[in-house]
């Protein structure tokens, strides 16, 4: 058949509410055995962030390996608590609430406070710095709690269209690229085999089955990590890095983390374990900027998780409820002392798509256990099917949002590396943290640009082009019959918290 003879509907794929090929959706579950192994795989994946952030920040605070081990334990405990609360009472989407890199800039600002830097004893400085960070997190958590439980964020979400969400969700995935190959490059002989093995197992060998079970596709991350760790350990014990630089040994050897050897045998993290938090307006204002970034990143991640879990887009009421519980999670971060705030784990959202398992139960199991893969960028771009991509207006908004969403944070990063300070470098520390944190986040920059342009540029008679007719039925909780199935609270709690 000639191309010119084809009907329009035969030349393109129609928009679809749900992705094709997902094995289990939000409220369907694999067997208990499979769910437990899949949950452990999610746990292993979020373990990367749980270790990397304390490894980066604790030494700057004056902490030693023992302090770092306790902080990692604390992060895992609070991640499990926050994830369980979010999946039970928040959005109820299969999302893990873990550590966020958005908080690194304001935390380093607290660490660099002259009053703390003057403390001579390292352990004392670590505890005093941790208490200052805790105070800032506790105060700043009020933003998400108020925005969530007052339904203000739900009201704001009415200005979000499918077009406006494309850069936010896509840049959430694209933002991981800077932590992709640069991290692999720190130890190429281990990182590159991991990458190749994961792609081979999850894509080329995904149809290999054991007793009709696609074991390589479902557990590709877990199998890859296990095999590569054994390979790395063989290199370590054989002396391959004996004469390497200290940096190479830290990145490549399997015996340099010191987490197991320095962790106490029995230790249960508890609130205020570092002492009473201290409060500073300067520190709190800086931390609030990271909370706003976390709010935007989580909104995009919730939308992506809903799509990967074959659920309807979360209605404004559900989105606000989830943000409110995330604020409670930030409060727990501050009370327990996790050294940074939390957000929806983009890596684990990506794993939903890799395994094709969007089950809520799997994530809840992983919360009981408590960096690699991310296909979130493709999920964000899939929202374009609901918009008119023949519209020059839409093409401009998506193009400029993606361009500036990537290039502005890259400018901030390169400026900081070359000048040894961020572009915003005034005497007002809280203002510096606000500007530098917001404009270092690709999803946040993309969100600001896309939402402003989408709601101001040729708005009249553009509702259909923006994808609003498709989006409209998900605006209210009872607008689509599936909403109640996906987002109703357990234990009949909707009687006390009716959807508004």
From TrEMBL:
Q: Where in the cell is it found?
A: Membrane
State if Membrane is listed as a keyword: yes
Q: InterPro entries from the entry? A: NCS2
- Keyword line: Membrane, Transmembrane, Transmembrane helix
Its chief place of residence is membrane
Q: Which residue ranges does UniProt annotate as crossing the membrane?
A: 32-58, 70-89, 95-111, 132-153, 183-201, 221-241, 362-383, 395-413
**A Pfam cross-reference name:** Xan_ur_permease
Topology in the membrane? Answer: Multi-pass membrane protein
Q: Does the keyword Lipid biosynthesis apply?
A: no
Query: Listed GO cellular component terms?
Result: membrane
One GO MF term on file is: transmembrane transporter activity
> Belongs to which family?
Belongs to the nucleobase:cation symporter-2 (NCS2) (TC 2.A.40) family.
Write down what this protein is called. Answer: Nucleobase-ascorbate transporter 2
Per the UniProt entry, what species is this protein from, by scientific name? Panicum hallii var. hallii
């Amino acid at each position: 058949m000639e191309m010119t003879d084809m009907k329009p509907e035969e030349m393109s794929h129609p928009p679809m509410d749900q992705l094709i090929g997902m094995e289990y959706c939000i409220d369907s579950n694999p067997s208990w055995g499979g769910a437990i192994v899949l949950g452990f795989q999610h746990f292993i994946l979020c373990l990367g962030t749980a270790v990397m952030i304390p490894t980066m920040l604790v030494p700057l605070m004056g902490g030693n390996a023992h302090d770092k081990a306790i902080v990692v334990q604390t992060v895992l405990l609070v991640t499990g608590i926050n994830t369980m609360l979010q999946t039970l009472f928040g959005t109820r989407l299969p999302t893990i609430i873990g550590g966020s890199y958005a908080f690194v800039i304001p935390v380093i600002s607290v660490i660099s406070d002259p009053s703390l830097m003057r403390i001579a004893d390292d352990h004392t400085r670590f505890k005093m710095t941790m208490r200052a960070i805790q105070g800032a997190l506790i105060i700043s958590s009020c933003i998400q709690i108020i925005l969530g439980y007052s339904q203000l964020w739900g009201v704001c979400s009415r200005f979000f269209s499918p077009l406006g969400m494309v850069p936010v969700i896509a840049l959430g995935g694209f933002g991981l690229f800077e932590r992709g190959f640069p991290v692999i490059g720190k130890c190429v002989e281990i990182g590159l085999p991991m990458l190749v093995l994961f792609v081979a197992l999850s894509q080329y060998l995904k149809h290999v089955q054991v007793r009709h079970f696609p074991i390589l596709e479902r557990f590709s991350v877990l199998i890859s990590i296990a095999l590569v760790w054994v390979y790395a350990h063989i290199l370590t014990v054989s002396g391959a890095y004996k004469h390497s630089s200290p940096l190479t040994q830290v990145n490549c050897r399997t015996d340099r983390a010191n987490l197991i050897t320095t962790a106490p045998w029995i230790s249960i993290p508890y609130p205020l374990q570092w002492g009473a938090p201290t409060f500073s307006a300067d520190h709190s204002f800086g931390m609030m900027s990271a909370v706003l970034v976390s709010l935007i990143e989580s909104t995009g991640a919730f939308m992506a998780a809903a799509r990967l879990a074959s659920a309807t887009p979360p209605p404004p009421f559900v989105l606000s409820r989830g943000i409110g519980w995330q604020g409670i999670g930030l409060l727990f971060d501050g009370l327990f002392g996790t050294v940074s705030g939390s957000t929806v784990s983009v890596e684990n959202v990506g794993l939903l798509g890799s395994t094709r398992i969007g089950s809520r139960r799997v994530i809840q199991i992983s919360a009981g256990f408590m960096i690699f893969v991310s296909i979130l960028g493709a999920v964000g771009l899939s929202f374009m099917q609901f918009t008119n991509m023949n519209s020059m207006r839409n093409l401009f908004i998506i193009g400029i949002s993606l361009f500036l969403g990537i290039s502005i944070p890259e400018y901030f990063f390169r400026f900081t590396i070359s000048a040894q300070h961020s572009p915003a470098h005034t005497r007002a520390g809280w203002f510096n943290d606000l500007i530098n944190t917001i404009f270092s986040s690709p999803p946040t920059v993309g969100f600001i640009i896309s939402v402003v342009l989408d709601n101001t540029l040729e708005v009249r008679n553009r509702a259909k082009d923006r994808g609003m007719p498709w989006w409209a039925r998900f605006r209210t909780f009872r607008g689509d019959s599936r909403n109640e199935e996906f987002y109703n609270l357990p234990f009949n709690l909707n009687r006390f918290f009716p959807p508004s």
